[in-house]
Amino acid sequence: MFKKVSSSLGLPRTQSLNSALTEKKKKNKFNKVKVEGGEPIALDRYLTNEGHRLVASYLKITQIQNHIQKGSLLKITEKELDDLLKSYQRNFYNSNNNVNEGAVVNLYETLNYENLGFSLQECKMLAKLLKSDKFIKIKTLKLSKNNLSKSSLKVLVNALYKNTTLKTLDLSSNLFTDSEAKKIAKLLKKNNSIKEINLSFNRIGSEGAKHLSKALKENQTIERLSIESNRLNSQGGQYIAEMLKVNNTINYIHLGSNNLQLTGVEKIADALKFNKSLVSLSLDINNISSEGVEFLSEALKINKNLTHLYIPRNNIGDNGLKYLSNALLSNDTITYLDLEFNNIGNQDNIEGIKLLGNILENHNVPRAINLTHNNIGNEGCAALFSGFHKNNTLESIILSHCNIGLEGTKVISDALKNNEGLQNLSLFKNNDMGADGHLELAQALEKNTSLKGVQLDYNFAEWEKVGNSIHQSLTRNHFLQQEKYNTACRILKVARIMLNVNVKQQLPTFTSISTSTSLSPSTSTSTSTSTSTSTSTSTSISTSPSSLLNLINNNNDNNNGSLAFTKLPFEIQEQILFALDTNQVLTPLQIISIIKWSLTKSTLGKSMEEFLTETLRAYYPLTSDIKLWPTEASDYYSAERF
After folding, report:
1. Superfamily of domain 288-452
2. Residues 45-61: pLDDT tens digits?
3. Which pTM was predicted?
4. At what angle do helices 289-300 and 261-272 cross, to 10 degrees?
5. Which of 19, 211, 259, 386 could form a disulfide with 185 if both were Cys (CB 3.0 to 4.6 A apart)?
């Protein structure tokens, strides 16, 4: 049919493509390549029949894969999808029918099909992908806002019964009722791979909660469960509570906006006394009131696993805060506490805030507190921060929309001058602070060495100078903390090498140390630590080596297999203690803690976080984003809460 011509490579090819391009005498810019210093060369000239077929096949496969990734499943036919799956299968099994693990397809690890109006036909094609889990690895599937029909859900659920790769399934905002919840419950009984399921913003009632709870009593894989904004009511809350008494795998559960009321919350609080796995509990907008918080507080005196308690918009008032504060006196695990919009400080009542201030002064919990939209005021600030200079574990406090004025800002600023732990402070939307309040904070940050994030309005003229000062202080603190961590790790490594028993045997013995020896000028100096912001701090070490060594040896437990530090030559002791801290960013007591850590065998294998937390009293990751609320999916994350 086609005239044969010889190509420049001496291979036969058809003239079909070339003639098709020249018949209409139009140039196709994609069919030629420009060679430097020469004329454009037609790419078609070098393609054989086989080449044409391979290129067309490659382009077709790429197009189909793109449609799958984008969720445009109606743009491909079932035959095209079947052919694609067969090609994946052929690559997965080699000629000897053995599995080729390297041929597993990872293109579809995350399929985001949100708000696409998925039809039954599209769900059937998606089901084929889910059933091909031997050679296609789908880990995350997002199907929110698709208003999936009962038939569509049934097709997907059937496909997921035996799927072994999917870990995260998002079915939020699909108008599911109890009927659909029953199908999902059946899936949770059979599937052994899904770890996170999101059923938020549906219409699941107490009967649906009953089916889900029954399934989760048997399920051993679900770790994160979100049923936020459904219609569980108090009866549904009781079903969830019964499940939590039995289930030992769920770590995070979101039950917000379900009208659980006092009865449902009471049952959930009772379940916390038995549950051993739950780490995060979200109960926002459930009309809990102070009575519900009293039940939760009694549970917190017993439960030692929960770290995140999220109860905003529940009208707990000052009485509720008092119950929580008293519970924290005997609980050392709650680290994240969200009390946003809870009518705290109503009518200038500061009794609850006083108790919370006492917690911050004398206890190690929590690490983060959100008090947004509560009437803390100036007097509340005075009560909350009265002993804050003693706290070194609170990592973040959010005081946005808290009616804080200049006097309250001064109290916070004075506390920051002596505090060594706070990393993030939000004073957003406190309009009465004014320019003077911002200036107070800027001056406080010149002395503070820990804070790395501040949220302010800067709603005054000539704010730029104050803003630049605050930014410089925060940048300095960031690099200073980084240097502290690096220095601590460097001292630990060298100390462990020097104190290694094999090294020790090769060193000369040294039996006496003069207690009158003082630090030489090279080690007892005042050093300026300069950062990229050209801000410097001055620190002086005057403690004598003998007093340091006595502190170390008095606390050294040789029965645990540690080595006697004083048996090393004094020059090595001095090197370990001081010379490695070239800019003197650590205190003598911190260095002592590091040496004690290095002398103890039981600390081997501990993580860097554990080491820095115990030796420097606190460890804060060097990141600008501190995620406090792990129950929330990123799609629903509210920046206002941080």
Report:
1. Ribonuclease Inhibitor (3.80.10.10)
2. 555 667 667 777 788 88
3. 0.79
4. 10
5. 211
